[in-house]
Design brief:
- It is a single chain.
- With about 300 residues, the protein is α/β, with parallel strands linked by helices.
- It is about 25% helix and about 35% strand.
- It has six helices and 17 strands.
- It has helices at about 120-130, 150-155, 165-180, 195-205, 230-240, 260-270, and strands at about 5-10, 20-25, 25-30, 35-40, 60-65, 70-75, 80-85, 100-105, 140, 160-165, 185-190, 210-215, 220, 225-230, 250-255, 280-290, 295-305.
- The strands form four sheets. An eight-stranded mixed sheet has the order 1-16-17-15-12-9-10-11, with helices on both faces. The chain has a five-stranded mixed sheet with strand order 2-3-4-5-6, with no helix packed on it. It has a two-stranded antiparallel ribbon with strand order 7-8.
- β2 (about 20-25) and β3 form a beta hairpin.
- α1 packs parallel to α2 and α4 packs parallel to α5.
- The two termini are about 20 Å apart.
Protein backbone atom coordinates (compact mmCIF):
# COMPACT_ATOMS: atom_id res chain seq x y z
CA UNK A 1 0.00 0.00 0.00
CA UNK A 2 1.28 3.48 -0.92
CA UNK A 3 2.13 5.24 2.34
CA UNK A 4 5.28 7.35 2.41
CA UNK A 5 6.87 6.82 -1.01
CA UNK A 6 8.73 9.98 -2.11
CA UNK A 7 6.83 12.54 -4.18
CA UNK A 8 9.38 14.22 -6.41
CA UNK A 9 9.31 17.14 -8.82
CA UNK A 10 11.64 15.99 -11.58
CA UNK A 11 13.30 18.86 -13.41
CA UNK A 12 15.68 18.57 -16.35
CA UNK A 13 17.88 21.64 -16.08
CA UNK A 14 20.71 20.76 -18.49
CA UNK A 15 19.05 21.30 -21.85
CA UNK A 16 21.07 23.47 -24.22
CA UNK A 17 18.86 23.15 -27.31
CA UNK A 18 15.60 23.72 -25.44
CA UNK A 19 14.38 26.39 -23.02
CA UNK A 20 11.10 27.48 -21.45
CA UNK A 21 11.60 31.21 -21.85
CA UNK A 22 8.41 32.47 -20.21
CA UNK A 23 4.80 31.46 -19.57
CA UNK A 24 1.51 32.97 -18.51
CA UNK A 25 -2.02 33.84 -19.65
CA UNK A 26 -2.56 30.23 -20.74
CA UNK A 27 0.51 30.15 -23.02
CA UNK A 28 4.18 29.15 -22.97
CA UNK A 29 7.10 30.64 -24.88
CA UNK A 30 9.73 28.03 -25.78
CA UNK A 31 12.94 27.72 -27.74
CA UNK A 32 13.57 24.56 -29.76
CA UNK A 33 17.02 24.87 -31.28
CA UNK A 34 17.21 28.31 -32.91
CA UNK A 35 13.46 28.76 -33.17
CA UNK A 36 10.97 30.27 -30.71
CA UNK A 37 7.39 29.03 -30.48
CA UNK A 38 4.22 29.95 -28.59
CA UNK A 39 2.02 27.03 -27.56
CA UNK A 40 -1.12 26.76 -25.41
CA UNK A 41 -0.56 25.86 -21.75
CA UNK A 42 -3.75 25.84 -19.69
CA UNK A 43 -1.84 25.48 -16.41
CA UNK A 44 0.04 28.76 -16.89
CA UNK A 45 -2.51 30.61 -14.75
CA UNK A 46 -0.38 33.67 -14.03
CA UNK A 47 0.72 36.78 -15.86
CA UNK A 48 3.64 36.74 -18.27
CA UNK A 49 6.92 38.10 -16.95
CA UNK A 50 8.27 39.19 -20.34
CA UNK A 51 6.90 41.24 -23.21
CA UNK A 52 9.21 41.84 -26.17
CA UNK A 53 10.43 38.24 -26.19
CA UNK A 54 6.94 37.04 -27.11
CA UNK A 55 7.02 39.24 -30.20
CA UNK A 56 10.12 37.37 -31.42
CA UNK A 57 8.27 34.07 -31.86
CA UNK A 58 8.74 32.31 -35.19
CA UNK A 59 5.33 30.60 -34.95
CA UNK A 60 2.23 30.51 -32.75
CA UNK A 61 0.00 27.46 -32.42
CA UNK A 62 -3.67 28.38 -32.75
CA UNK A 63 -5.80 25.65 -31.14
CA UNK A 64 -9.30 24.57 -32.08
CA UNK A 65 -11.83 22.88 -29.84
CA UNK A 66 -10.69 19.41 -30.90
CA UNK A 67 -8.21 17.31 -28.93
CA UNK A 68 -4.76 18.60 -30.05
CA UNK A 69 -6.44 20.24 -33.03
CA UNK A 70 -5.34 23.54 -34.52
CA UNK A 71 -2.74 25.02 -36.85
CA UNK A 72 0.55 26.90 -36.81
CA UNK A 73 0.57 30.61 -37.59
CA UNK A 74 4.07 31.31 -38.90
CA UNK A 75 5.49 34.79 -38.24
CA UNK A 76 8.97 34.05 -39.58
CA UNK A 77 10.57 31.40 -41.79
CA UNK A 78 11.09 28.03 -40.11
CA UNK A 79 12.93 25.11 -41.72
CA UNK A 80 10.87 22.02 -42.51
CA UNK A 81 12.99 20.19 -39.92
CA UNK A 82 16.07 20.98 -37.84
CA UNK A 83 18.40 18.94 -35.63
CA UNK A 84 18.61 19.12 -31.85
CA UNK A 85 20.79 17.38 -29.26
CA UNK A 86 20.62 16.18 -25.67
CA UNK A 87 23.63 14.85 -23.74
CA UNK A 88 22.74 11.96 -21.47
CA UNK A 89 24.35 12.07 -18.03
CA UNK A 90 23.59 8.90 -16.10
CA UNK A 91 25.51 8.17 -12.95
CA UNK A 92 28.89 6.42 -13.45
CA UNK A 93 30.01 4.09 -14.86
CA UNK A 94 29.87 6.01 -18.13
CA UNK A 95 27.59 5.03 -20.99
CA UNK A 96 28.68 2.21 -23.24
CA UNK A 97 27.76 4.42 -26.22
CA UNK A 98 28.45 8.03 -27.11
CA UNK A 99 25.73 9.29 -24.78
CA UNK A 100 24.52 12.05 -27.12
CA UNK A 101 21.00 11.93 -28.51
CA UNK A 102 20.58 13.78 -31.79
CA UNK A 103 17.15 14.09 -33.33
CA UNK A 104 15.00 15.94 -35.81
CA UNK A 105 12.43 18.50 -34.64
CA UNK A 106 9.65 19.89 -36.80
CA UNK A 107 6.25 21.53 -36.53
CA UNK A 108 3.42 19.01 -36.90
CA UNK A 109 -0.32 19.35 -37.60
CA UNK A 110 -0.74 19.05 -33.84
CA UNK A 111 0.98 21.28 -31.29
CA UNK A 112 3.98 19.01 -30.80
CA UNK A 113 7.46 19.26 -32.34
CA UNK A 114 8.85 15.74 -31.98
CA UNK A 115 10.25 15.95 -28.45
CA UNK A 116 8.86 16.24 -24.94
CA UNK A 117 11.88 17.90 -23.24
CA UNK A 118 10.71 17.26 -19.65
CA UNK A 119 10.96 13.47 -20.16
CA UNK A 120 14.77 13.76 -20.36
CA UNK A 121 14.76 13.29 -16.57
CA UNK A 122 13.60 9.71 -17.19
CA UNK A 123 16.15 9.16 -19.97
CA UNK A 124 19.00 10.00 -17.58
CA UNK A 125 17.52 7.78 -14.85
CA UNK A 126 16.98 4.56 -16.76
CA UNK A 127 20.08 4.94 -18.95
CA UNK A 128 22.09 5.14 -15.73
CA UNK A 129 20.48 1.93 -14.43
CA UNK A 130 21.15 0.17 -17.73
CA UNK A 131 24.77 1.33 -17.94
CA UNK A 132 25.45 0.06 -14.42
CA UNK A 133 23.89 -3.35 -15.05
CA UNK A 134 26.25 -6.31 -15.32
CA UNK A 135 23.97 -8.10 -17.78
CA UNK A 136 22.35 -7.08 -21.08
CA UNK A 137 19.01 -5.42 -20.41
CA UNK A 138 15.99 -6.07 -22.63
CA UNK A 139 13.74 -2.97 -22.76
CA UNK A 140 10.22 -2.49 -24.11
CA UNK A 141 9.20 1.06 -25.05
CA UNK A 142 5.45 1.40 -25.64
CA UNK A 143 3.95 4.44 -27.38
CA UNK A 144 7.54 5.22 -28.36
CA UNK A 145 6.74 8.25 -30.59
CA UNK A 146 9.96 9.61 -32.20
CA UNK A 147 12.20 7.19 -30.33
CA UNK A 148 14.21 9.34 -27.94
CA UNK A 149 13.63 7.08 -24.92
CA UNK A 150 14.44 4.08 -27.13
CA UNK A 151 17.72 5.68 -28.25
CA UNK A 152 18.63 6.64 -24.67
CA UNK A 153 18.22 3.02 -23.57
CA UNK A 154 20.10 1.68 -26.60
CA UNK A 155 22.97 4.15 -26.12
CA UNK A 156 23.35 2.86 -22.56
CA UNK A 157 23.71 -0.71 -23.81
CA UNK A 158 20.17 -2.12 -23.81
CA UNK A 159 18.45 -4.23 -26.42
CA UNK A 160 15.22 -2.33 -27.19
CA UNK A 161 11.82 -3.09 -28.71
CA UNK A 162 10.08 0.13 -29.79
CA UNK A 163 6.31 0.03 -30.38
CA UNK A 164 4.09 2.79 -31.77
CA UNK A 165 0.80 2.74 -33.69
CA UNK A 166 1.98 5.46 -36.09
CA UNK A 167 4.08 4.38 -39.06
CA UNK A 168 5.13 8.02 -39.52
CA UNK A 169 6.41 8.25 -35.92
CA UNK A 170 8.40 5.03 -36.27
CA UNK A 171 9.97 6.31 -39.51
CA UNK A 172 10.86 9.55 -37.72
CA UNK A 173 12.38 7.51 -34.86
CA UNK A 174 14.55 5.56 -37.31
CA UNK A 175 15.80 8.82 -38.79
CA UNK A 176 16.72 9.91 -35.27
CA UNK A 177 18.59 6.63 -34.79
CA UNK A 178 20.72 7.37 -37.84
CA UNK A 179 21.29 10.98 -36.78
CA UNK A 180 22.44 9.78 -33.33
CA UNK A 181 24.96 7.34 -34.89
CA UNK A 182 23.18 4.45 -33.16
CA UNK A 183 22.28 2.54 -36.31
CA UNK A 184 24.22 -0.53 -35.17
CA UNK A 185 22.37 -0.79 -31.86
CA UNK A 186 19.93 -3.72 -31.40
CA UNK A 187 16.54 -2.02 -31.80
CA UNK A 188 13.33 -3.65 -33.06
CA UNK A 189 10.96 -1.12 -34.65
CA UNK A 190 7.31 -2.24 -34.46
CA UNK A 191 4.17 -0.54 -35.83
CA UNK A 192 1.35 -2.09 -33.81
CA UNK A 193 -1.31 -1.59 -31.18
CA UNK A 194 0.48 -1.55 -27.80
CA UNK A 195 -1.95 -3.81 -25.91
CA UNK A 196 -2.23 -6.40 -28.68
CA UNK A 197 1.55 -6.50 -29.08
CA UNK A 198 2.23 -7.03 -25.37
CA UNK A 199 -0.44 -9.73 -25.13
CA UNK A 200 1.22 -11.58 -28.03
CA UNK A 201 4.65 -11.20 -26.43
CA UNK A 202 3.26 -12.68 -23.20
CA UNK A 203 1.89 -15.69 -25.08
CA UNK A 204 5.28 -16.15 -26.76
CA UNK A 205 7.03 -16.07 -23.38
CA UNK A 206 9.13 -13.01 -24.25
CA UNK A 207 10.55 -11.28 -21.15
CA UNK A 208 11.69 -7.70 -20.56
CA UNK A 209 13.87 -6.22 -17.82
CA UNK A 210 12.67 -2.64 -18.32
CA UNK A 211 9.37 -1.19 -19.56
CA UNK A 212 8.73 2.41 -20.61
CA UNK A 213 5.07 3.47 -20.83
CA UNK A 214 4.19 6.88 -22.26
CA UNK A 215 0.54 6.48 -23.30
CA UNK A 216 -1.66 9.23 -24.73
CA UNK A 217 -4.99 10.18 -23.21
CA UNK A 218 -6.76 8.98 -26.36
CA UNK A 219 -5.45 7.21 -29.42
CA UNK A 220 -6.05 4.65 -32.14
CA UNK A 221 -4.05 1.62 -33.19
CA UNK A 222 -3.05 0.94 -36.82
CA UNK A 223 -6.24 -1.11 -37.33
CA UNK A 224 -8.53 1.35 -35.59
CA UNK A 225 -8.11 -0.05 -32.08
CA UNK A 226 -9.34 2.49 -29.53
CA UNK A 227 -7.08 3.54 -26.67
CA UNK A 228 -8.61 5.41 -23.73
CA UNK A 229 -6.15 5.67 -20.87
CA UNK A 230 -8.57 5.24 -17.95
CA UNK A 231 -10.18 2.15 -19.48
CA UNK A 232 -7.18 0.67 -21.30
CA UNK A 233 -4.24 1.20 -18.92
CA UNK A 234 -5.20 -1.49 -16.34
CA UNK A 235 -5.31 -4.17 -19.05
CA UNK A 236 -1.99 -2.98 -20.46
CA UNK A 237 -0.28 -3.03 -17.06
CA UNK A 238 -1.59 -6.56 -16.46
CA UNK A 239 -0.22 -7.70 -19.82
CA UNK A 240 3.12 -5.96 -19.16
CA UNK A 241 3.48 -7.81 -15.85
CA UNK A 242 3.28 -11.10 -17.75
CA UNK A 243 6.26 -9.95 -19.84
CA UNK A 244 8.53 -9.03 -16.92
CA UNK A 245 11.72 -10.98 -16.33
CA UNK A 246 12.40 -12.71 -13.03
CA UNK A 247 14.38 -9.72 -11.73
CA UNK A 248 13.16 -6.55 -13.51
CA UNK A 249 15.36 -3.47 -13.51
CA UNK A 250 12.78 -0.69 -13.95
CA UNK A 251 9.27 0.31 -15.01
CA UNK A 252 8.27 3.93 -15.69
CA UNK A 253 4.85 5.33 -16.62
CA UNK A 254 4.23 8.95 -17.64
CA UNK A 255 0.76 10.41 -18.19
CA UNK A 256 -0.08 13.70 -19.91
CA UNK A 257 -3.27 15.76 -19.97
CA UNK A 258 -5.17 13.59 -17.52
CA UNK A 259 -6.98 14.28 -14.28
CA UNK A 260 -5.19 11.42 -12.52
CA UNK A 261 -2.83 12.21 -9.67
CA UNK A 262 0.66 10.75 -9.45
CA UNK A 263 -0.68 8.80 -6.47
CA UNK A 264 -3.10 6.97 -8.74
CA UNK A 265 -0.35 6.10 -11.23
CA UNK A 266 1.88 4.91 -8.38
CA UNK A 267 -0.85 2.70 -6.94
CA UNK A 268 -1.49 1.13 -10.35
CA UNK A 269 2.26 0.54 -10.66
CA UNK A 270 2.40 -0.93 -7.17
CA UNK A 271 -0.33 -3.42 -8.07
CA UNK A 272 1.54 -4.33 -11.26
CA UNK A 273 4.83 -4.89 -9.41
CA UNK A 274 3.49 -6.75 -6.37
CA UNK A 275 5.76 -9.68 -5.56
CA UNK A 276 8.86 -8.04 -7.02
CA UNK A 277 11.53 -6.46 -4.83
CA UNK A 278 11.89 -2.75 -5.54
CA UNK A 279 10.91 0.79 -4.70
CA UNK A 280 8.41 3.23 -6.18
CA UNK A 281 8.89 6.94 -6.77
CA UNK A 282 6.12 9.23 -7.97
CA UNK A 283 5.60 12.88 -8.76
CA UNK A 284 5.46 15.39 -11.60
CA UNK A 285 7.70 16.24 -14.52
CA UNK A 286 8.29 19.99 -14.40
CA UNK A 287 10.05 22.66 -16.44
CA UNK A 288 11.46 25.84 -14.92
CA UNK A 289 11.05 29.19 -16.66
CA UNK A 290 14.09 31.26 -17.48
CA UNK A 291 12.11 34.45 -16.80
CA UNK A 292 10.68 34.21 -13.27
CA UNK A 293 11.81 30.73 -12.26
CA UNK A 294 8.27 29.37 -11.94
CA UNK A 295 7.77 25.64 -12.36
CA UNK A 296 5.37 24.43 -15.03
CA UNK A 297 3.96 20.94 -14.42
CA UNK A 298 3.95 18.91 -17.64
CA UNK A 299 2.98 15.37 -16.60
CA UNK A 300 2.54 12.96 -13.70
CA UNK A 301 4.69 9.85 -13.39
CA UNK A 302 5.45 6.78 -11.33
CA UNK A 303 8.60 4.73 -11.65
CA UNK A 304 9.71 1.50 -10.06
CA UNK A 305 13.34 0.47 -9.57
CA UNK A 306 14.28 -3.12 -8.80
CA UNK A 307 16.38 -4.21 -5.86
CA UNK A 308 18.98 -6.94 -6.18
Amino acid sequence: MITSQPFTLLETSRWKDYALIDSGDGLKLERFGNYIFVRPESQAMWKRSLDNEWKQAHAVFQPTGEESGGHWDFKKKVDEKWDMRYDLTPHPPPLKGEGALKFWAMTTPGRHLGVFPEVAAHWDWFSGLIAQSKTEINVLNLFGYTGLATLAAAAAGAKVTHVDASKKSVSWARENQALSNLIEKPIRWIVDDALKFVQREARRGVKYDGIILDPPKFGRGPKGEVWEVYKSLPSLLEACRECLSEHPLFVVTTLYAVRASAIHVAQATEDMMSGFRGKIEMGELVTREQSAGRLLSQAVYARWEGKA
